[in-house]
Each structure stands twice: as structure tokens, then as C-alpha cells.
Amino acid sequence: MATRKTGARARSGGPGDTAVVVLAAGGSTRMGRSKPLVEMDGQPLLARVLATARAARVGPTVLVLGDRASEVRARLDLNGGMVVENPEYRQGMSTSLRSGVAAVPAGTRRVAIVLADQPFVSPETLRALATRASGGDGAIFVPTYRGVWGNPVMFDLSLAPELASLEGDVGCRGMFPRHSAEIREVPVDDPGILVDFDTPEEIRAVASALADGRELRSVLDAVAAPRVALHADPRDHPVARRLRRGPDVDAIAATLRRESVPFALATVVRAVRPTSGRPGYKAIIRADGSHVGWVGGACTEHLLVSESLRALREQTPRLLRVAPEADEGAAAPEGVVERAMVCQSGGTVEIFIEPNLPKPTVLIVGDSPVAASLATLAPVLGFRAVLAAPGAQPHDLPEVDAFVADLKELPKHLDAGTYAVVASMGKYDEAALAPIARAPVAFVGLVASHKRARAVFAAVREDGVSAAQIARVKAPAGVDISASTPEEIALSVLAEIVRVRRTTTTAPEPGDRAPVASTASIAIDPVCHMEVATTTPLTHVHAGTTYYFCSDGCRRKFARAPAKFGASPGRRP
Q1: How far apart are CA 490 and CA 93, in angstroms?
Q2: In the beta sheet, which residues pair with residue 533?
Q3: 422-473 confidence digits (pLDDT tens)
Q4: Which of 194, 218, 243 is a domain's end point?
Q5: Are the C-beta atoms of residues 148 and 231 closer than 8 Å to each other?
Q6: Could you tell me if 131 and 254 lie in one domain?
Q7: If you average pLDDT over residues 296-302, what whole number do you get?
């Protein structure tokens, strides 16, 4: 990459309509080392970002460096674009934004601002933004995933003069309040627009998931889930948003446990003023990120959701400590997660997060002695026992959690958390095995001899069960322990189920559809740049434009000096 110092807009380069500015100048204080050079899967984050910008082929690339610029130059191949060094990077993102935009080639009409800590943005997202922007309608183009705004943002260079009014660690979103009518959403199928990295722990978590063989898309969806959940539409929220008595969190938790719904229970165990949380405050966070209850203010909320979803995925409790002096780069004690309190109100809060996961289900088909032994032993090992046996009497097996009297009802009990065993000893092996083999269960076993199993497989194949589905069936079911009695056979089958459970990743993931806010109802607080619902009563009208605020403190600051926060000139009301 060629080098240019900050200053007037570059006059060299091609006449392309679009340029890509990559911001990589920050000090990376929370990461503890140069963020652009932090590696994931053997490749620096910045290298991934630059590769995306090149692959998109929407226009020339301008890279803005600052902190440890010489080290970045020495480590990465920066050929194929322009490098700008911003000597004022310590004053915040706004200075890097101005430096990068000033250096784009002459003739550029619009620019995409790409962040160096978002390595998983798809090239197709940049192309979608450029295509939408080329239509001539709008001045700011924001990608959305499941209705939530993300990065990179593309804007028309006619807005470039307004960058001079931005101060501190503020990006191009500081222009949003003045151009709300010119913002255009660009829906993309790319969770990477919501995924950035600020701490080594976040890097390690994603790298570990990828190393374990999880698909990149599922990993990104899991990381993006808290961001999506934070913008839940009030209509989809588990508790209606209206003035009323506080929810009975303990009663809700009991109901969720009874209904086998995964959730995390968060309890404040320590608080230091002026934080709004108090010891004993509780909240419930579901696996889709929706939540009910209260543990503190908005500054704690997104951290709580993120750590609760991680606790559910890892099936491990943890203590979340949010404090102004938290060192996120330092090693925390085992079981403790430290996060920095960024709200001006300050204070410290410690929250114990306990994952509550439904018991895995062992579905047993049959009324044989082996089936009865399975139904007796499964609850001892922490399983929920469901017995499907036409004519069975519940009082004969009080350990069983549920009975299925009609085999046609089997599909209602088959999901990814079910371990199914057919042990009818020939009575209705075929009738039960066909629907089970077709279902996405965690395990399916058949208690039968090899000869009998071949006959059962031949019969269900005639019923349309595929060879691949039949291949999933373990027959004879169970670990070979030379079992002889019904009890020993049941023990061998449960031993195999335990082995499958403990060696296969079955941790609950956020639901297919987390509550999503309508971005049409979201505004940006011009003071702190938090996203705020337009239904808030904290508003201020200046020069005919309504501004929305996350707190009365931000509203008062704006009212005293609107121009300082990017408001257009005009008489104050």
C-alpha cells in the first residue's frame, strides 16, 4: 500500500464511485495488545479485514493506522491500497475517520467505513451496500441482520464536511441524528456485521468453537445473539412493558423448569454504590436472549445477556463482576468474569449466573423387563424418563416422568435432546423405530440380536426409512459388558447413552428466532451514541428535529449545547 500523511483529499487513483476505509488506528486498551495483529486461526484480524475489502471489489482501499503502525507494516502485506497514519489517533475514532476519508481518491462519491475488529464481515455485505447506494436514494446506508443495525456503514461523501464536528471516540454514526430521513437499511444475511472483538476472552471463545469443528455461521450467530436480543420488540418481550408490579422471578423460574425450558438465573450478590443493582435482585435470561427481572441499569444489561448465553452454551455457572477498575486483559480468578463499567454513574456489581438446563430425555419404547429396568435406572442418572408402552400402568413405575399410550404420539417426544431406545422385544419394534429413525434425536438404539435387527431394518426400509437413517441406529444397543440380565442390559444401554451425551456437544444454542426490534423505532442518542427506542419520553426538539436520549443526563447535556453534539444550527425552543 502506498503511504499518505493526513491532509487534503488525495487526487490520485482511479475514478471509482466507492472507496473502502479501514480504521485500524486505535490503542486496543481492552485487548491489551495491538488488536489488528491479534491472531485468530493463525491469521491477524486486520489481514482478514483487508482480504474482505479486496474480495468485495467495490473500490480502492484506504487503511488508517496509528498505534504500533510500524509493527503492523512489518507484519502484514499492505500492498494493493493506500496507508494513512493518523498521529492524533489517541483523540479517538473521529480523527481516524477524518484522516481516512480525506485520503480517498478523487472522484469517489461514497465511502464504506470498515472496522479492523470485525474480521467476519462478508464481501457480499460490502457489495450489497455499494449496490444499494448506487441507486441514488439516501445518503447513509446501514447493513441489518435480523433487523439489527451493524457495521460497516456506507455514506455519501457530500456529508464529509460534517465529519469536522465529530469529537472523541465517535464514528460516522455521529451524523445519524441529522440525517435520519436519509438513512437506508440494507438487509444482509451476515451475522458478521454484529460481531466485533474487544477482549482476548472473546477471541479465544470463537477460536475454540471453530477449532472444535463448529460451523462459522453457527458460531457467529451465537456471538451476535446478545446484540440481537437487546433490541427485542416490546410485542415479543416475555413481560409486557408497562407500569405494573415487578415479576415474580422465582415463580417464573419454577414454571420454566417444569416446562423444560432452558434459562439462566442471575442474582446480584454484591453491589457498591452508585450502581442501581442491589443484593438479591434477580433476572431470568432465556436461550434466545430475552429476559425478565432486574439486576441493574442499561450499562450492565448487555453484559449480563452475553455472559448468560455463554453460561448456557458452556453449561457452567460464573460470577460476573462489572466494575470501573476491571482489567479485562488480566487473568481473572477461576469462575469469575470481569467486565469494565463504562457508564458514567460508575459503581460495582457482582452477579452470579446459574444456567438451568432441562434434563435430557430417555424415551423408552416397550413393556419388556429391559424397558422397565431402563425406566427405573434413567432417573437415577439424571435423565427424564418417558415410557411408550400401550397398556402400561403408571402406578407400576412411579419413577417415570411421562407415559405415551399411543405410538402415534411418539413424534411429539422426539427432538435433539432425546435419547431413544426401542426395547419392545419384537412387539412393535418396526412401528416405533420408523418415526424415531427419521427424527433428529441425539441417539437411537434397538435392543435386539443382530439377526432380529436385520429383520427390523428390512421392514422399516420398506416403510420409506432411508439407509442413512437406518445407519444411525445402534443395534444391539449398549456397551459390551457381557450383560445377561435385563438390569445388566439396561445398564449397558444407559452407559452408551452417557458416553454419547458426554462426548457430543449438545449445549443449547439461542433459538432460531430471537426477538428482533424494528429498527424504524430505534434512534441514536447524540450524546453517548447508545441506541434508544423512539417511544422514550426523554426527548428534546431543536431546530425542528426531535432527538432521543437514554437518560435525563444526556438530554440535559444536549439541551445546554446542541451544536457540540452535531445538531444543526437553529433557534432553541
Answers
A1: 63
A2: 522
A3: 999 988 899 999 999 999 999 999 999 999 999 999 999 998 999 999 999 9
A4: 194
A5: yes
A6: no
A7: 69
